[in-house]
Write a structure and sequence with these properties.
The protein is an all-alpha fold. Among the domains are: about 1-35, no CATH class; about 40-70. Helices cover about 65% and strands about 0% of the residues. It has helices at about 5-20, 30-35, 40-65, 75-80, 100-110. The chain is elongated. The termini are far apart. Residues about 80-85 have low confidence and may be disordered.
Amino acid sequence: MTNCESLVHLDRKLSRAMFSRRGIKLTADDLDLLASLGMPAKVAQAKAKALEDEAKCRQLRVVSTNGGRSGSISSVAQTGSQQAIDGTSGGTMPGQGASSGEARARQMFGRRANA
């Protein structure tokens, strides 16, 4: 089989598998063809990008939940404040009691929440 024929065959095999959402078996020749097309490098590049994106998301979540403060002794020492961090994240409200939840339910549904 020529290189062109191999490419057409592999493309058809991959397309059918993706369309039907089924697995396929790759032969050694298929793997060689994918390697010659630079597929291992592309997969490695995509993996590196995915890992970078996950790390950025984790960093943003930490900053968001800490309100930009790490809560460590060094951050308290830098600000000179001896005040304890209250544990609420930036922009959140303290928890409300059950009675206010019932009041919201009554307001939303126009009747008693327990009825």
